[in-house]
Amino acid sequence: SQQGEEDPQALSIQEGENATMNCSYKTSINNLQWYRQNSGRGLVHLILIRSNEREKHSGRLRVTLDTSKKSSSLLITASRAADTASYFCATDGGTGGFKTIFGAGTRLFVKA
Amino acid sequence: DVKVTQSSRYLVKRTGEKVFLECVQDMDHENMFWYRQDPGLGLRLIYFSYDVKMKEKGDIPEGYSVSREKKERFSLILESASTNQTSMYLCASSEQHSGGRMNTEAFFGQGTRLTVV
After folding, report:
1. A106: distance to nearest CA of chain B, Å?
2. Which of A33, A91, A104 is the closest to B40 by Cβ?
3. How many whole angstroms separate alpha carbon A37 and alpha carbon A44?
4. Which of A102, B47, B57, B77 has its CA 20 to 30 A from that of A78?
């Protein structure tokens, strides 16, 4: 079962624009993470936000978390062609354990 | 630099073969994971291990087994490969949170693209 569901499935924008991706999940969580995957590669961790945090920043990335709505968003500001990748959210699936469960991802394409 | 290394980048095996996918991490992490990734389905957890010789099933363990004899190595075994196991396999590791059972940042290998013919 997939805990996180990303929306949209695919997004195409122009360089310089902002990109927003959303993630919804089903159960209570300890934290939520966002990862990035370049084509055919392993995933790279971007940011982790704890359940008691509402917003977190890292460079051009801004992540929000709304536990009442069981949703999170990832905003990439001033996007670049190099941001073209798939983005995944991940949670512990409500297991309260060590499992990390991923959604299907959002494919972002940034046109130069 | 932290590293998770998967033994093969590409692998082609025949139906019915026993297949071993190896993963080694150099970060002294307690947790290790095996996922498979298929188009449109994201990453699905096959098995994970939170200690040497300990393992737990993920969401799709059927047709797979795992072995963790040493902390740094986590092996995925396809007992009798089938064509529906053609996929990208990703290994990951993470440290255990000092505050208890909580997942933390996972570090991934580059993946093994397995084709079963």
Report:
1. 10
2. A104
3. 6
4. A102
What pLDDT digit, counting tens, does each position of B65-101 carry?
A: 999 999 999 999 999 999 999 999 999 999 876 665 6
Task: Name the minimum distance, in Å, from the CA of A24 to any CA of chain B.
Answer: 15
Please write the tens of the pLDDT for every residue from A53-99. Answer: 999 999 999 999 999 999 999 999 999 999 999 999 998 876 656 77
What does each C-alpha distance from A85 to A37, A46, A81, B13 come to in angstroms? Answer: 6, 12, 9, 29
